[in-house]
Model the fold of this input.
Amino acid sequence: MVAITFGAAGALAHNPAGKPDPMNASLEKLKGAEFEQSFLQQMIQHHRSAIEMANMASGQTQRTELRQFAEKMISNQQKEIDEMTGWLQSWYNTSAKDIANPEADKEMKMHMSMFAGKKDTDFDKTFLQMMPQHHHVAVEMAEQAEKKATHPELKAFASKLVKDEQAEIKQMKHWAQEWFGPA
Done:
């Protein structure tokens, strides 16, 4: 079982050794066009993995509100993938990579394995543990983009992503507390 520490700001997106997650770590030293391209590539990968996780909700939970939440998240994140893919093409004449960060992809596969065989309450608990942690990585990435992006559209996108995903984290933490009690 993976322990997730929640502080005032939410889940800490660091591994047990205290290092930043692979995506945020890879972005820290970048700036300008190099930062933007890497951010867009990795956020697309990150969103795809969130969609993969959320897709499981339709068949694994009995909770209507969790299924609807996952469906909305899938729709919103796909729209964001489409927008980011368009920016990669128009700003940098490149397309999205299947895997932009192999280390993060390996971590995500490990996280996805935690859902194996889980249904109903077991699935709900795992989802409400893993998705906020996953979202927090995206929030930290977007906070970097708010500071370092050069395109105003990307800065605005990052700001909205932070706001939206923090609201989703808050909702999931509320459900976890309401449905399963204190962590």
In short: Confidence is low (pLDDT under 50) at residues 1-16. Residues 25-98+120-180 form a domain with the Ferritin fold (CATH 1.20.1260.10). The helical segments are 22-27, 32-55, 57-60, 64-92, 102-113, 120-148, 152-180.
